[in-house]
Amino acid sequence: MIIFMYECESRDETTVDKSEKTITVYKVVHGHRLPPEPDPKINNSTLLGIDSNNNGVRDDVERWIYTRYDKHFPCKMVEVNVTIPATGKTVTGYKRICEDHEVPYHQIVREIAMQGARAAQIIIQEPERARETRAVFARAYNCSFYFQHTFSFPAPSKENNESVYLDHYIFGDEFKAVQFNTSRRSRAFAKYNMALGGGVYGNLSKNNGRDVCDFNATKLLRKNP
């Protein structure tokens, strides 16, 4: 078997079998080897789908994460003077300014999304145990919240001269549409939310927020995107 790995943004892996020799080409994005695109019919026939590399994330979701959070146009909020037409009074406002070239997302953004995808696989297996398993998804949410509001939008702070650009909630409708993409998965997630009804839940973070991340955020902050 001969295996080639390449870094590419759009091409997928191919497999060629000739004279009992298999050539497999894998897609590598930001140093991460993606799993093959699963057969949708097989992948969607079960609750948890296909996870060929056994990292806790469904293969199609993992591929979506590394595609969705590949590059972005950096934006920031800047103060501007705004004149109110009715009164002529000038007040301070904010305007979103975006750069005209794409840059890679920080690896931390992809790690946050992967943590949430792993958590999503756990909570839908036994939705009736939501009050026990909610902590898994809550950690992913709190990790995302920490970086979104501490290292990102609207005024990025920096550590080791780095900012982690994240101007939206990762686990919103876009994520849910991919993660819970079948009626069975969607129903399981709905049952999970119903089981949480009426509860009061506190913050899981004991330190600065990044302690709830399931990856070494401090180490990743020492690396360039």
What percent of residues adopt helix (DSSP H or I)?
Answer: 25-40%
**How many separate helices?**
7
**End-to-end Cα distance:** 33 Å
Unreliably modeled segments: 1-11, 153-157
The percent range for strand residues is: 15-25%
Assembly classification: single chain
| Rg, nearest Å | 21 Å
List the SSEs and their pairings.
Layout: E1 2-7, E2 15-18, E3 21-29, E4 32-33, H1 40-43, H2 59-68, E5 71-72, E6 75-83, E7 90-98, E8 103-104, H3 107-123, H4 130-150, H5 173-179, H6 183-195, H7 217-220
Parallel strand pairs: 1-3
Antiparallel strand pairs: 2-3, 3-4, 5-8, 6-7
Helix pairs in contact: 2-3, 3-4
Can you describe this structure in just a few lines?
By secondary structure, this protein is an alpha+beta fold. Helix content is 34%, strand content 19%.
3D architecture notes:
This protein is an alpha+beta fold. It has helices at residues 40-43, 59-68, 107-123, 130-150, 173-179, 183-195, 217-220, and strands at 2-7, 15-18, 21-29, 32-33, 71-72, 75-83, 90-98, 103-104. It has two domains: 56-70 and 105-225, no CATH class; 73-103, no CATH class. It is built from seven helices and eight strands; from the N terminus they run ββββααββββααααα. The two termini are 33 Å apart.
